[in-house]
Each structure stands twice: as C-alpha cells, then as structure tokens.
Amino acid sequence: MRAQLAEVPARRPWNGAALLLLAGLVVTGPSHTALAQPAQPAQPTAIPVSTTPAQKRPIERTADFVGRIEAVNRVEVRARVTGFLEEVLFRDGESVKEGSPLFRIERAPFEAAVEQARGALESAQGTLQNATTQRQRAEDLLRTNAGSVAVRDQRVAEETAAQGSATTAAANLKTAEINLGYTEIASPIAGRIGRTKLTKGNVVSPDSGALALIVSEDPMYVNFPVSQREFVTFGHNRVDAGSTGPKVTLRFSDGSTYEQQGTIDFVDVSVDRSTDTVLVRAIVPNPKGRLIDGTLVNVAVHAEKPVDKVLVPQAALIADQQGAYVFVVEDGKAVVKRLKVGAEAGAYVVVDEGLSGGEQVVVQGLQGLRPGSPVLASPVAPPPAGRS
Predict the structure, then answer these.
(1) Which of these three, 275, 302, 329, is where a domain ends?
(2) CA 147/CA 165 separation, integer angstroms
(3) Same domain (yes/no): 112, 210
(4) Are 99 and 189 members of one domain?
(5) What CATH number is associated with residue 349?
(6) Where is the Multidrug resistance protein MdtA-like barrel-sandwich hybrid domain (predicted)?
(7) Using only C-alpha atoms, what is the Rg of the chain?
(8) CB 337 within 8 A of CB 359
C-alpha cells in the first residue's frame, strides 16, 4: 500500500508595509492608542481700568434744614398827620439812607397851625405877666396893711391859672411844630424801599395804612426750625450773648451756594410743642444784596469739630435697585463694594459705610465691568478735593 503524503503549501513572504504596521501595533499596544484631546477654553482678556485710592480725611459734619431769609430791620412807612400828598421823593425799589426824605405832605395848613399856636402862647404869656404883677402888688399892699388877705389869695390863684394857660399854649405850639415836621416823611432806617401804595395828590392819614415798606439789606437773618435732638447733636442748644455759634452755609433753589458764611446767633427759649422744633436764627453778611427778605433757602449747619470720613470720587459711584456701590480692584479682579453714602464734598461723596480707606476704586472703564472680571489697573491722579 502506498503511502500518501499531504502536500504542504509553500509559505509566502511578508509584505514590507504589513511588517511596519505590525511593528507599530506591537510597540504601542492597545492601551497606548492616541486619543483626540478636547480644546482648552480661551482665557478672558483683562479689562483695562483706571483706579484711584479711596481717601480718608477729616471733613466737617453738616446738617441740612430749610430756612427763610428775614431782614434785620423792617419798617412800614406811615403818615402821622392828615393832608394832601405833595411829592413822592424816591423811586420804587431803590436803596435809601437813614433820614432820606420819602414823602412830602402839604405844609401850609400846618404852618398856619404853628402861627396860631404861637399867638396863643404869646397871649397866655401876657396874661401870666399881668397876673404876676397883680399878685406882687397885692402882697405889697398886704404888708402895709392896705390890702386884704383875700385879695392877695385871689391874685395868687389868677397867677397860677395864667401859668397853666401859658404851659398849655406852649405845649400846643410844640404839638403844632411836631405836626409840621410830620409833613416830611423821612426814612427811619437805611435799606431798600418797596413800591409805594399812594401817589401824588391823594389824601393820606394815619388810617391810610403803610405807604411803603423798607427793609435793611446788610446783614440779614435766616430763621429755620430744628428738632431739639438734631441741634443737641451739634453740641449747641443755646447761644449766649457775646459768644459765637456754629457756622452756616446757604444754598439757593437752583443749587448754587451763597458765597458768604453766616453764624448762628440765637436759639429760641421754647420748643414748639406742635412740631417739636426750636427756632434757630443765623446772621449772614449781605454786602451785594443777593439775599432778599422772605426767600426760602437751604441751610447747612456745620459742626465745630471735623471727623475722619472715607471719600470716593463721584465718577466711581454706581447705583441700582439695591443702592450705591463701587468696583474696587482686589488680586487683579473687580470686586463690588456696597456703600452707604452721605453728603457730597466737591467732586467726592462721603462714604459712611462700606470702605475703610485705601481701596483702589475704579473710576474709568466701568462700562463693561462685571464682578470677578480680571482687570488691568492703571492708577490716575485723584480729582481735586472739594470744600466739605
């Protein structure tokens, strides 16, 4: 039996490319297969901003009130005699000096009254002289026993009556001369005169009312009510004679500040029980006449001792529904600081709470700023300090 031999197929040589692929698989292995890495997020760009440090410096404490200007002297000019108004010697609204003539009333009737009174006085003086002579004669006759006591007493009584008539006549003459003087009405004070209510040709009398109003102009008073608690806070609930009280600054309705400072010179002695306020008065120079009697003004009362306060520029202040805040730079990032702000001080605002001073406050570049944003801070010069 023949043995059958199986045919062994011949081996085929390895392709070069296959060898290279196999070598790569052997070297790297399945666990070292290259994987696609996720893209890294882009870092946010730092926002350029300008900063200035929050300043801490002493400022004056102030409290604001509403007051009214009042003239120191205020006079209603009135007629003191009855007569026809001959002349008005001023223009409405002009300044007048003390003693300046303002009105002139017809003089002729009053001059006649003076002459009549003078004549009555001369007659009374003649009667008195005769009575004196008769009394002396009666006394002489009584000393020589040629006259009686009764006659002498009668002559003494007649002399006394004549003396009384002469005194009355002298008083009537003086009254007539005073009334003649009242025909020229002069200004009792220096100040500014208002519009006259009567013109030439009208009959004026003491019952005619005020002919014009004169108010003094320099200085002026400003009166304002203050709660007792607020005024005690400033350490002045009274001002004694000869002493000076706190300073005050006035602001007009348009927001402008009056250039002259005043001084509190009077605190009323009684509190108004209906409002729980006390009336306070300050005296303010008015050399240019800017303050007008009766004007409403804002009154800022300054405390005597300044206190240390933190100030930030008003340009750095931002407000939203929660209140005011600023951005400060901490560790290269923008951080929000909520503030409780007080009064303005020029280009600054007083910070009562929220900052301690020295923080780098952002004043420029606020438009795109968000809490936590990286910033590139550049210091800038602070704005000029305003008057507190």
Answers:
(1) 302
(2) 27
(3) no
(4) yes
(5) 2.40.420.20
(6) 73-208
(7) 50
(8) yes
Provide the domain count of the chain: 4
Report the alpha-carbon distance of residue 381 to residue 51 in Å, rounded: 9
- The pLDDT assigned to 235 comes to 58
Q: Give pLDDT, residue 66.
A: 92
- 319 is in which domain, residue-wise? 49-58+307-379
Binned average pLDDT, 10 residues per bin, the chain of 388 residues = 38 41 41 49 76 85 87 93 92 91 93 94 93 88 83 89 94 94 93 89 90 92 86 61 76 90 87 85 92 92 80 89 91 90 81 89 86 87 65
Instruction: Say if CB 264 and CB 282 are below 8 A apart.
Output: yes
Task: Extract long-range pairs of 251-256: CB within 8 Å, 24+ residues apart.
Answer: 251/297, 251/298, 251/300, 252/295, 252/297, 252/298, 253/296, 253/297
Write down the pLDDT at residue 239: 63
> How large is the angle between the packed helices 149-181 and 108-143, nearest 10 degrees?
160
Q: Are strands 47-53 and 375-379 parallel, antiparallel or unpaired?
A: parallel
Closest to 159 measured CA to CA, from 138, 128, 136, 122: 128
Residues 128 and 345: their CA atoms lie apart, in Å, by 83
Does residue 36 lie in a domain region?
no
Residues 295 and 326 in one domain: no
Strand partners, 378: 50
Region label for 153, one of left (φ > 0), alpha (ψ between -120 and 50) or beta (otherwise):
alpha
Give a yes or no: residue 238 inside a domain: yes
- Residue 160 has, within 13 A of its CA and on its CB side, a CA count of 6
Whether the Cβ atoms of residue 102 and residue 85 lie closer than 8 Å to each other: no
Return all residues near 118 (Cβ < 8 A) that are at least 6 apart: 173, 176
At 243 the pLDDT is: 60
Residue 74 — φ and ψ, nearest 5°? -145, 120
